[in-house]
Amino acid sequence: MELLKERIRKDGVMKPGNVLKVDSFLNHQMDIELFNEMGKEFKRRFEGVKIDKILTIEASGIGIAAIVAQYFKCPVVFAKKSQSINLDGTMLSAPVESFTHKRKYEVIVASKFLHPDENVLVIDDFMANGCAAAGLCQIIEAAHANVAGIGIVIEKGFQHGGAMLRGRGYRVESLAIVEEMDPETQTIRFRED
């Protein structure tokens, strides 16, 4: 998606340790016009796929998932990173390790929100090692629902999470796949579609 790649080149900041900061438009402050274009693109890429629900993970995935859900006319469910008194009933959970936060979480979804045979699309803002998406797929499968696909805004192609998930047979659609980035020169190279 050229519009997204241009925005990453213009406003993204590369830092040592394979960190790409896009907090000015994606995961702290959100550019809703850009989100709308990304929502349209995910709808185009998954055209003809029956989507009953979208599943994401708190917190950064919620904004883009909500916009994407408008195009599929379906609800969004988000996995919580901690148990709270508001959660009741049977829970589905999976371990997830965050590349950005260097922390492990047990993400939780109330089973009443995912039903057998539903087609669930995973949407998230970033993919590095693929742990978050893999954990969400594990939750979907534990609910006896179907993983309809995985939609990622920015995939770090050099970190192999996408390759791992594709190798497991999941359909992964990433709007921008970063092949290389150099924090010294602030240059970035994307995989061509």
Automatic annotation (TrEMBL):
<dbReference type="InterPro" id="IPR050118">
    <property type="entry name" value="Pur/Pyrimidine_PRTase"/>
</dbReference>
<comment type="function">
    <text>Converts the preformed base xanthine, a product of nucleic acid breakdown, to xanthosine 5'-monophosphate (XMP), so it can be reused for RNA or DNA synthesis.</text>
</comment>
<keyword id="KW-0963">Cytoplasm</keyword>
<dbReference type="GO" id="GO:0032265">
    <property type="term" value="P:XMP salvage"/>
</dbReference>
<dbReference type="InterPro" id="IPR029057">
    <property type="entry name" value="PRTase-like"/>
</dbReference>
<dbReference type="GO" id="GO:0000310">
    <property type="term" value="F:xanthine phosphoribosyltransferase activity"/>
</dbReference>
<dbReference type="GO" id="GO:0046110">
    <property type="term" value="P:xanthine metabolic process"/>
</dbReference>
<keyword id="KW-0808">Transferase</keyword>
<feature type="binding site">
    <location>
        <position position="20"/>
    </location>
    <ligand>
        <name>xanthine</name>
    </ligand>
</feature>
<comment type="pathway">
    <text>Purine metabolism; XMP biosynthesis via salvage pathway; XMP from xanthine: step 1/1.</text>
</comment>
<feature type="binding site">
    <location>
        <begin position="128"/>
        <end position="132"/>
    </location>
    <ligand>
        <name>5-phospho-alpha-D-ribose 1-diphosphate</name>
    </ligand>
</feature>
<dbReference type="InterPro" id="IPR000836">
    <property type="entry name" value="PRTase_dom"/>
</dbReference>
<dbReference type="GO" id="GO:0006166">
    <property type="term" value="P:purine ribonucleoside salvage"/>
</dbReference>
<comment type="subunit">
    <text>Homodimer.</text>
</comment>
<dbReference type="Pfam" id="PF00156">
    <property type="entry name" value="Pribosyltran"/>
</dbReference>
<keyword id="KW-0660">Purine salvage</keyword>
<feature type="binding site">
    <location>
        <position position="156"/>
    </location>
    <ligand>
        <name>xanthine</name>
    </ligand>
</feature>
<protein>
    <recommendedName>
        <fullName>Xanthine phosphoribosyltransferase</fullName>
        <ecNumber>2.4.2.22</ecNumber>
    </recommendedName>
</protein>
<dbReference type="GO" id="GO:0005737">
    <property type="term" value="C:cytoplasm"/>
</dbReference>
<feature type="binding site">
    <location>
        <position position="27"/>
    </location>
    <ligand>
        <name>xanthine</name>
    </ligand>
</feature>
<comment type="similarity">
    <text>Belongs to the purine/pyrimidine phosphoribosyltransferase family. Xpt subfamily.</text>
</comment>
<dbReference type="InterPro" id="IPR010079">
    <property type="entry name" value="Xanthine_PRibTrfase"/>
</dbReference>
<keyword id="KW-0328">Glycosyltransferase</keyword>
<feature type="domain" description="Phosphoribosyltransferase">
    <location>
        <begin position="46"/>
        <end position="157"/>
    </location>
</feature>
